[in-house]
Design brief:
Elements (H helix, E strand, L loop, with lengths): L16 H10 L4 H18 L4 H20 L4 H4 L1 H24 L5 H16 L8 H22 L18 H7 L88
Helix pairs in contact: 1-2, 2-3, 5-6, 6-7
């Protein structure tokens, strides 16, 4: 766990606050993912503002956290090797995505699945520290963020969300405002709890066809290993199509070091 406490977040860095909060939530159970969440926040913050005193101070403390974590987990190849770290973060993001997608397709709409969709989108942001996102991951991010907003707004308004992929419309919600009303989106101790199944609305058939769902093997340990059984709701929505994530070739472990990216610290001096 990162030992150095961060100063108050400057207003300029509002866009990275949820990535940092996700890092705090994952410090104990997924320190590698937490490390890269902070690295993403560091790189993004540098682009936003590295000149004003409050931002420089914040980034300096964040760099201290990164250095402490790198020292603590320096023997972990997911920290020292980009290709291993990228695979680790991507796999965890897909676990979150698949859990939420399985719940959604089964008509099980609840706060924890909303959080899982939203967190998956944040973790796909984090993948950009390794380079440009693949088209598939970019679609996953867009879909997960939209689904989180769509289901949240439906439940908030007393409406029944439509399960599975549907035509994406202009859905959005203010995360800060919702967290003031409820801590549901970022409750580190929340356990999956399902509400009663909702039937699909009589809406137009799906026109969002670009989503490729990751394989069931990526489901986290505390979620169903398979896509939930048929709930009885007739739907013509897209079903998951198996895809295999290639194994990491051990010969690639000597690839560039993730630590090389920390040279951005020099810009703070």
């Amino acid at each position: 766990m990162a030992a150095t406490a961060l100063p108050p977040l400057p207003p300029q860095f509002k866009s990275i606050q949820h990535h940092l909060r996700t890092a705090q939530e994952l410090d104990k159970r997924e320190p590698v993912v937490a490390y890269y969440c902070r690295l993403y926040a560091m790189q993004t913050g540098m682009k936003i503002d590295s000149k004003t005193p409050e931002c420089r101070k914040f980034l300096s403390k964040l760099m201290d956290q990164l250095e402490a974590m790198k020292k603590q987990f320096g023997d972990n190849e997911a920290i020292t090797q980009d290709i291993v770290g990228s695979a680790h973060v991507e796999n965890y993001a897909l676990k979150m995505f698949l859990y939420a997608d399985n719940e959604d397709r089964a008509g099980q709409f609840h706060k924890n699945m909303i959080k899982s969709f939203y967190t998956a989108s944040l973790l796909i942001d984090v993948l950009t520290v390794f380079g440009e996102l693949s088209e598939e991951n970019a679609q996953h991010r867009k879909y997960a963020r939209w689904k989180a907003a769509y289901i949240h707004n439906c439940l908030k308004n007393g409406e029944s969300p439509q399960p599975g992929p549907i035509g994406m419309e202009g859905e959005s919600f203010d995360v800060e405002r919702e967290e003031t009303e409820s801590s549901s989106l970022h409750s580190g101790t929340a356990q999956p709890t399902s509400s009663s199944a909702h039937e699909a609305n009589n809406k137009a058939a799906s026109n969002y066809t670009g989503i490729h769902i990751p394989p069931g093997a990526h489901a986290p340990a505390n979620t169903p290993a398979e896509v939930p059984h048929n709930t009885g709701v007739t739907s013509n929505t897209i079903q998951p199509s198996p895809q295999n994530i290639p194994l990491v070739d051990p010969s690639l472990y000597s690839a560039q070091s993730a630590g090389a990216r920390l040279i951005t610290a020099n810009l703070l001096l």
